[in-house]
């Protein structure tokens, strides 16, 4: 990593490493062994030239043998030369590199993690508990290894920071105003959380394939009060719908009575009928009829 003029470190970038097929080098090592054995047999037969074959075969074997390493599918190895990054090998199978070059393996598979429950204040200052699950993977091995100290710990810390940022950005719930809320707009919140985490983890060469909230609730100290508030809001909303429907039904009844000439209603009778119909339609219990044997005004 090169240092900039302001003292900040520039981001590392992954590049391909110059490595060899391990099976081919295994064949070369076998040839080196055969050369060494041939030299030993020559020395045993009294041929001084056999010493050269022994030296060549032995040197070749001891140079080739330490350079082997194996990569599984979705595994990579960063190649280092005396601490200097020389590239990343992503080819699976038996591989070989010069023995004085170091190899640091890391997985580039998808990882699944569920965060701890965090207590966060939402947009309105209410304490809530929130947790998330996400699927992440390493996309740039050089950044993951050299730009952060421990990329797995870095992921856990950034999940907490991202959750706190999203949790404080929205209210837990808002029935009255129809705003975007944590409880009522899961798709929007999950999309913003993923974008937030991708931006935070980019410095470590990590991307987020999927994330979603797994736990969302009011903190225990206010859960009871908020439950009563939600119940009250639900009752008010239901009553509002009920009154709207009752007013429409009363209006329809009066219009049809007037159009068909069933009864002539003055203002006082009309008011009385409206009152009775609203009581019947909006009451919690069935209305008990009272038979009036006199006139309407008695």
UniProtKB/TrEMBL annotation:
The cellular location(s) given in this protein's UniProt record come to: Membrane
Query: Does the record's keyword annotation contain Transmembrane helix?
Result: yes
The record's listing under Pfam families reads: Band_7
Residue runs in coiled coils = none
| Top-level taxon | Bacteria
InterPro entries registered for this protein in UniProt = Band_7, Band_7/SPFH_dom_sf
What are the TM regions of this chain, as residue ranges? Answer: 23-44, 50-71
* Positions of the Band domain: 66-234
Topology with respect to the bilayer: Single-pass membrane protein
Q: Which UniProt keywords apply?
A: Membrane, Transmembrane, Transmembrane helix
* PANTHER family on file: BAND 7 DOMAIN-CONTAINING PROTEIN (PTHR43446:SF1), MEMBRANE PROTEIN-RELATED (PTHR43446)
Which protein, by its recorded name, is this? SPFH domain-containing protein
Gene source species? Sphingomonas naphthae
């Amino acid at each position: 990593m090169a240092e900039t003029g302001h003292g900040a470190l520039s981001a590392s970038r992954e590049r391909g490493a110059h490595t060899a097929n391990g099976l081919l080098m295994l064949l070369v090592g076998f040839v080196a062994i055969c050369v060494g054995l041939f030299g030993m047999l020559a020395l045993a037969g009294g041929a001084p030239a056999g010493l050269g074959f022994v030296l060549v075969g032995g040197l070749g074997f001891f140079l080739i043998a330490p350079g082997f390493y194996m990569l599984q599918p979705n595994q990579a190895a960063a190649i280092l030369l005396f601490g200097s990054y020389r590239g990343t090998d992503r080819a699976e199978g038996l591989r070989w590199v010069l023995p004085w070059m170091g190899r640091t393996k890391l997985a580039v598979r998808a990882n699944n993690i569920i965060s701890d429950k965090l207590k966060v204040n939402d947009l309105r200052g209410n304490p809530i508990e929130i947790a998330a699950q996400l699927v992440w993977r390493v996309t740039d091995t050089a950044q993951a290894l050299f730009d952060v100290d421990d990329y797995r710990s870095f992921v856990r810390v950034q999940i907490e920071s991202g959750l706190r940022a999203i949790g404080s950005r929205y209210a837990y719930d808002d029935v009255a105003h129809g705003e975007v809320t944590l409880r009522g707009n899961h798709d929007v919140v999950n999309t913003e959380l993923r974008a937030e985490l991708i931006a935070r983890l980019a410095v470590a060469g990590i991307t987020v394939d999927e994330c979603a909230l797994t736990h969302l609730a009011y903190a225990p100290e206010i859960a009871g009060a908020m439950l009563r508030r939600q119940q009250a809001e639900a009752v008010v909303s239901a009553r509002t719908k009920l009154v709207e429907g009752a007013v429409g039904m009363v209006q329809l009844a009066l219009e049809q009575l007037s159009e068909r000439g069933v009864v002539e209603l003055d203002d006082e009778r009309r008011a009385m009928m409206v009152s009775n119909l609203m009581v019947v339609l909006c009451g919690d219990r069935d209305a008990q009829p009272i038979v009036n044997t006199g006139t309407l005004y008695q």
